[in-house]
Amino acid sequence: MGSVDKELSAAKTLRVLVVRAGIGGLTAAVGLRKHGHEVTLFERTELAQEFGAAFHLPPNSYGILKRFGIHPELFGETRVQGVREYEYTGALRADIDLTAFNPTWQHPWVLAHRIRLHETPKNLATRKDGNGHPAVLHTSSRGVAVNPSTATVTLENGAQFSGDLVIGADGVSVFDYQESCHGHRSQAYDSGKSAFRFMIPHEAMLSNQLPKSLLVDTAT
């Protein structure tokens, strides 16, 4: 057990409020539950149907997930063998072969399916069995403000919840905890990069020789 684990285990049980139940919020809930804390999550959507394709997991992220008991290899990870970057004109900017580097890292560099990567920590955080307190997940609960002095989250419907700690896991959404805490909201900026994720039917892959050569026959 690492020093951080020991410190968390020795601390008192905290009531933690997590705003948004995406991959980040749910993974935080898994880690906090593991150390005996009580977690309540607020998700603005109904979580009725998750969507998305591949999710990028570099070695450091993979190691954190594994530490929390989330193993991408159990739900169809794909090892990354290389990375290519293109200019907006279509010109190749970089072509990085990772086959020589992969064996040197403690954890692999993989792509995982976003839906499975979301469902796994959600189940680990909220299931009734297992160690610690099951996390409580409130859907259709959009956070609109937070009081940092009292660790209180106010929802769009006026309901308020208080705890010992509030975690904002809402990315660049409309939740304004930044303004409540700091008096201003950080402005998003263009990084100059875009990632396009898409899904291709298996039959379409087989009809083209180039992608067909990349497929692995799982029937044997």
From TrEMBL:
Listed GO MF terms: FAD binding; monooxygenase activity
Residues in the signal sequence: none
Keyword Oxidoreductase in record: yes
Keyword line: FAD, Flavoprotein, Monooxygenase, Oxidoreductase
InterPro entries: FAD-bd (IPR002938), FAD-dep_Monooxygenase_BioMet (IPR050493), FAD/NAD-bd_sf (IPR036188)
Domain FAD-binding: 15-172
Pfam families: FAD_binding_3
Keyword Heme appears in the UniProt entry: no
Family to which the UniProt record says this protein belongs: Belongs to the paxM FAD-dependent monooxygenase family.
Annotated protein name in UniProt: FAD-binding domain-containing protein
Source organism: Podospora australis
Organism placement in taxonomy: Eukaryota, Fungi, Dikarya, Ascomycota, Pezizomycotina
